[in-house]
Amino acid sequence: MPSTAFASPVADPVISDLSPSLCTMEDSLTAVRSVIATELMPKVLDIDVKAEYPEPFLRALGQAGGFRGAVAVEFGGNGLGIKHVIRVMEEVAKECLSSAFLVWCQTACARYIQLSDNDALKEAFLPRIAAGELLVGTGLSNTIKSSDSIEEFRLCATRVEGGYVIQGVLPWVSNLGAGHFFTTGCPVRGADGSNDGLVFLLVDCSQPGFKLIDCAHFMGLDGTRTLACQFKDAFIPDAMVLAHPSEVCAYVERIKPGMIHAQMGMGLGLIEACAKLMQQSNRTHAHVNQYLDDQFDDIDTALNGARALTYSLADEVDQHPATGRILDILKLRLAGGELSVRAAHAAMLHQGAKGYLVRNPAQRRLRESYFIAIVTPATKHLRREIARIEASLAGSVA
Questions:
Q1: 139/147 Cα distance (integer angstroms)
Q2: Which fold has domain 139-247?
Q3: How far from 330 is each of 32, 108, 245, 380, CA to CA, in Å?
Q4: Residues near 164 by Cβ (< 8 Å), separated by ≥ 6?
Q5: Where does residue 201 fall: left (phi above 0), alpha (psi -120 to 50 degrees), or beta otherwise?
Q6: Residue 63 DSSP code
Q7: What single string gives the DSSP state of each residue in 168-208?
Q8: pLDDT in tens, 88-118
Q9: Model confidence pLDDT, tens digit, residues 38-57
Q10: Other C-beta atoms within 10 Å of 50: how many?
């Protein structure tokens, strides 16, 4: 292999010597809210309108412990698990969904590494990711959709001595930049063109054979540093492999429930923010808002039910990452996306014409809500998988 093939970076000694950051949930969330107030809230409009990437906020959030729930205590985690991940995301989403999505990218990638069998990779990367020293993304959208026969794989790997050579282009991966890393998965092609299974990898955005391409601009969530990823004879050493083909089935069973379930943090925060916009409008326009289909109490009641179930399932996912409750998780995630759109629609109608103002969050919340319904797994993807699983269960009973 080329002499330029990189090795796993050595963790900064200050970070690797970091003792486990054990704390209570509320103590941690107090620190998180403080960072949101000082680093995020003043920048929300710039993130949305100017597509500003909130790197200072992400770094500060990491330093405040906002990513530590995704990581085991021995690697600098706080012992609070995926419920902490969800609750941090929820707090961020109350102000800015772009930033909440970046929190999901960071913590999802951390969990993919955490749940791999690559102990050396955990030691080298997890303390740095948990502390916000290293920013990371997740490029598994194409992997998941292709595995579910929704689209074609955009990448392919060839097994070579000491690792894999990757070819192809991923269109949109978020939370990227020079010095960032991200996870992805793709099929391994045999010499005869056969599919030898999937390999999951951690990719260095600065490595040879890899290039970031800024090729798309969005009407919402454009501050998420979403770029195309081009692989041209990119060599990924075995040291950066999360799961080889022989390990993939068990690996996917471990990562998929938590990956999907954690996205509820975005929805819960957005829905609460929309409910508050409805309340705000009702201070002066309750006499006419009362004729709208959805009232504050309707959204608030649905939110409380979704939140309780989300926290309960989070505990189960922590205890059993490969939980058999995947159908419940898919249904809850679907409901979270649908309620997000419903709440944002109601908030916009409550706000009326002033909801169109650039500084009014109602129009931003509407755009954000559609992202929750579209991001992988999207509403149509979720409904398809739910129908498939339910049909399979019905067939087994028959």
A1: 14
A2: Butyryl-CoA Dehydrogenase, subunit A; domain 2 (2.40.110)
A3: 28, 17, 25, 12
A4: 157, 158, 188, 199, 201, 235, 236, 241
A5: beta
A6: H
A7: EEEEEE-S--TT-EEEEEEEEEPTTS-EEEEEEEEEETTST
A8: 999 999 999 999 999 999 999 999 999 999 9
A9: 999 999 999 999 999 999 99
A10: 11
CB-neighbour burial class of residue 397 (10 A; exposed 0-12, middle 13-18, buried 19+): exposed
Could you read off the pLDDT of 191-210 as tens digits, one per residue? 888 889 999 999 999 999 99
Question: Do 13-135 and 263-397 have matching folds?
Answer: no
Give residue for tokens 């080889």: 244
Amino acid at 242: L
Instruction: Count other C-beta atoms under 10 Å from residue 315's C-beta.
Output: 12
Q: What is the DSSP letter of 20?
A: P
Closest CA to 299 of 259, 266, 342, 358: 342
What's at 134, amino acid-wise? L
Residue 327 is inside which H or E element, if any?
Answer: helix 326-351
CATH topology of domain 263-397: Butyryl-CoA Dehydrogenase, subunit A; domain 3 (1.20.140)
In the numeric block, which tokens belong to residue 233?
A: 């004879």
Cβ-based burial of 340 (10 A; exposed 0-12, middle 13-18, buried ≥19): buried
**Fold designation for 13-135:** Butyryl-Coa Dehydrogenase, subunit A; domain 1 (1.10.540)
